[in-house]
Each structure stands twice: as structure tokens, then as C-alpha cells.
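Q&A log
Question type: sequence-to-structure
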Amino acid sequence: MTDNSAFIRMLYDAFGRGDVQTILDNVDPAIEWVSNINGDTVPWGGKRSGKAGVASFFQALAENLDFEVFAPHQFLDAGEAVTVLGRTRARFKTGGHGLFDSEWVHIFTIASGKLTRFQEFYDTAATELARAA
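Response status: OK
Response body:
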């Protein structure tokens, strides 16, 4: 059995290095990528699909946020699904440069060694308030 938690940890490490290409190399071409925040309110929000959609998610993060903390804390491996609990503290680069601090949950689905689905849940109200600040 593959250690999917180690696979997901590797992807978080890549993100921490700014290595989005490693993430893109490990997603299924038909991946579904979902953020629970409204895409009309926050640029990386909403639903995306495919590698181009995942790339646009990370581009929106890079263009809009300066991360002070991005910390996955707990990895819960359930075979094809890995749930990660963590925390983000980030400041918007645009607008009033508002700061938000939110715990989050990321749920990854893995099949045949590739990510097939990602869904995140975090404090959307805090993020929207920080963007408006």
C-alpha cells in the first residue's frame, strides 16, 4: 500500500519551496480543485479543473498573498483520501493589505499515484474582511 500521507507531505514541501511545478506534475489531468470561498470575492476561490485550473489557483495565491504562516499540522490518511488540518496567516498584497489568520482543512483524493481531487475549507469571512481592509 502506498503511503499517501508521505505523498501529500511531499507536495506541501514543494509548495513551501515555491515549486508549483512539482505539484502540477503530480495531478491527474482531470483533477477537480475546489476552494470553499466565492471566486467572485477572492481570486483563488471557487472550482477549477485540470492542470491549467490548478496552475491558475497557485498563480492567484502568488499574486494576492504574502504568507506569514502556512502550516499543515495533522495528516489523517484514509487510503485514497488524506485530510490535512492546518493554519494560514497571510496578508493581501492589494487593497488595504488586510491580514487574515485561519485554521483550515484540506482534503486530497489520490488514485494511481496522482491527485484527482482537492477541496479546502477555511474561514471565508475572515479572508473576505481582510481583502476589503
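Response note: The helical segments are 4-16, 20-25, 50-64, 124-132.
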